[in-house]
Description:
72% helix
Amino acid sequence: xxxxxxxxxxxxxxxxxxxxxxxxxxxxxxxxxxxxxxxxxxxxxxxxxxxxxxxxxxxxxxxxxxxxxxxxxxxxxxxxxxxxxxxxxxxxxxxxxxxxxxxxxxxxxxxxxxxxxxxxxxxxxxxxxxxxxxxxxxxxxxxxxxxxxxxxxxxxxxxxxxxxxxxxxxxxxxxxxxxxxxxxxxxxxxxxxxxxxxxxxxxxxxxxxxxxxxxxxxxxxxxxxxxxxxxxxxxxxxxxxxxxxxxxxxxxxxxxxxxxxxxxxxxxxxxxxxxxxxxxxxxxxxxxxxxxxxxxxxxxxxxxxxxxxxxxxxxxxxxxxxxxxxxxxxxxxxxxxxxxxxxxxxxxxxxxxxxxxxxxxxxxxxxxxxxxxxxxxxxxxxxxxxxxxxxxxxxxxxxxxxxxxxxxxxxxxxxxxxxxxxxxx
Length: 425
């Protein structure tokens, strides 16, 4: 009997210990899924430790699979870390800006050559069409061409536009109407390209532009960039929003310390809370947060989040009502992700810079040209025959624009080729 009792005690202890061990093992295995942020750090660490290729490939696959479950479109760190194009860079605003900055300089160089040649032959023809002594014409020609050539060599935009306005008046005085139209078109095109280039360059240098690109293209913003663009509560909120996009749901706890001062901030905080609860499967709590956010600061994104919450709770009547509202707004629900949409803190885009100084230079040139022709009058068509010996003068006098366009095209092609050579190096 004693042996039987001892056997039962040992058996109970054994199975109790086994049960306890199994519980402990189960508790240890129940871990939250690693965030995208954690997986990127793991990849970085594995690369630093020079792990084998299969381990690196496994990290990359896990990052891609995790990304599909989150509102992240592109991870630039991935391509950077592995030094190859693991993910294709999606087109964005920065792609367009870089193309503009690359292609505009060759175009402006070609236009400047066309304008220079036009102004050169305009000046030569005008001076040679005056009734002054030959010595005066020679001196005026040397001075005029020297000033013109030097101005285009130093490539000061305001000076080029001043001379363009000046030359346009001389052309009109010579009754060269076709060339006046050609020059006017070239000036306006150059002015437009200069404005476009200046604005594109400013946007490329703007932190706000990069912030907007990160939001639109990637779906999250690095903390260091947030600190450069946003301050105070908005910086704190955006850091949490970007962390949530990367799967760091625990970051939502940081919002407890944020005291919202505007309806937008309150709505963004509530939307973040709702997003975190939805991903945890607490749809009723998520619905509460989204409904409150919608009352404070209604947006299309929050309405969609409400629709998802109602659908998850099988409240189909409310879900269908919101779906109709979204369809009326032109939002195709079927094409949106099956998780709530995070709303990032908006930032103002850089304003448009107008070419006021260049326009002022052009106007001053026109005024100077009008004053000039009052004191130095030319007789259109009455020019020195020796002028025809200068290459290109016949084409100018006969309104033949083709040689000028051909030279401009060659200049454009050379500049474009040199630009590509420099970029490739």
